[in-house]
Amino acid sequence: MDPAVYDPGVNPGAAAWFLPTATEALARVAPYLRILRDHGVPCVRLESADPGRIVYADGYQVVAVAPRGGGGT
């Protein structure tokens, strides 16, 4: 992956999202969220049909930059 994908000057606020078809990766999310909650770390699982402008994609994830003024929908 190109390191510029996460460069704040090039793609401010870029965030990775798993694709709905990445079922194995998504199945691993819940245990991590439980660990964070058990240690008092606030966290949520977000889903979006439109995370923003896609700046990277592969078979498991996309990295997107949300529109100014908000996140994806």
The helix count comes to 2
Order of helices and strands: EHHEE
Largest sheet: 3 strands, antiparallel
Task: Give the overall silhouette.
Answer: globular
Strand arrangement in the largest pleated sheet: 1-3-2
Overall pLDDT score: 90
The counted number of beta strands is 3
What's the alpha carbon Rg, rounded to whole Å?
13 Å
Low-confidence stretches: none
Residues in helices, as a percent range: 10-25%
Structural class: alpha+beta
What does this structure look like?
The structure is a single chain. With 73 residues, this protein is of the alpha+beta class. The mean pLDDT is 90. Helix content is 21%, strand content 19%. A hairpin with a 3-residue loop joins β2 (53-57) and β3. The chain is built from two helices and three strands; from the N terminus they run βααββ. The chain has a three-stranded antiparallel beta sheet, with no helix packed on it.
Question: What key phrases describe this protein's structure?
Answer:
2 helices, 3 strands, globular, alpha+beta, 73 residues, single chain, 3-stranded antiparallel β-sheet
Topology:
Elements: E1 15-18, H1 23-27, H2 29-38, E2 53-57, E3 61-65
Antiparallel strand pairs: 1-3, 2-3
Short description:
With about 70 residues, the chain is α+β, with helices and mostly antiparallel strands. Helix content is about 20%, strand content about 20%.
